[in-house]
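[audit] Reproducing an earlier prediction to check determinism. Same input, same settings, fresh worker. If the tokens differ from the archived copy the diff job will pick it up downstream; this log only records the rerun itself.
[audit] input (335 residues):
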Amino acid sequence: MADGSGLNQNTARGRHFTFQSRSGRKYMVTQTISKPVDVLLVEDNPGDARLFRENLKEAGSARYNLTCAAHLAGALSHLDAGHYDVVVLDLTLPDSMGISTLNSVRMHSPQVPVILLTTINDEALALTAIQNGAQDYLIKGQVDGSIISRSIRYAIERHQAGERENRMAYFDALTSLPNRRLFKDRLHQALSRAHRYEEKLALLFIDLDGFKPVNDSLGHNTGDLLLQAVARRLEGCLRKSDTVARIGGDEFTCILPHIERAGDVNIVARKIISELNRPFDISGNRIQISGSIGASLFPDDSADGDELIRNADTAMYHAKKHGKNNLQFFGDSLK
């Protein structure tokens, strides 16, 4: 991934730094870089790019692989093609200007921290960009190798700290699946897209059959391990564009965008039912459970997210009444 600039420096270990996040929370950072830091510089001015490369060579605290892009489109292609630890971004590019440049990078690769490279006249814009998710900014002509190295290190650590906070807020601690909060946010986004492009969308509500007896007889630890195993199997049944979430207890939901017909939902539901029917081996116990699934469709059953959830829940209880371990659609008979 390096551009041949030879930015390989000695690794520093065991150095401690403290920084304060914008929320006021303080973090202790221990620098333990054991591999080169992959940096993507997005800068269309050859002179500024050359100066940045030369400054980075001066940084003796870490090793860097530097890749350069002169356009936003080229930067996004690089991000598609490989891994980067940080993006150093000029907001003024031939094919993008201002905050929209930052937004494009963050939407494309939210897992990569961004540092802005700006002029002193653009410092107000840089501060606005910080409020929009950038981790730090550097002013052209006012930095050296040590400042760049420190900014990169802090940006990576701040981003990781933010990711940890975000994970606690939006993901289920037990299964690592999206929680109810993130599920509703993704449902809102999926419905907006489905409405815009006149697509169908399915929502599945899954309740495990036989989980409570397992939890009561074998204990909560076994029950927790079973829920984790269920989560992994559910993930294996879905596409990358789908979302599976745990919304509480032994209840899970799935968002299935880009559905063409009800038969597509049947295929996914049969796969889920088949996976849940396979015995689970948990702590030496062979455990047999199943799943009752309710499905509602956009726009057939509703265009409102909360109503789609209620409809799928109603259909799930209908599946319970029909012997469990099956799929039921929310149709005219349940309205």
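[audit] rerun output stored. Observation attached for the diff report: The chain has two domains: 13-168, 180-334.
[audit] end
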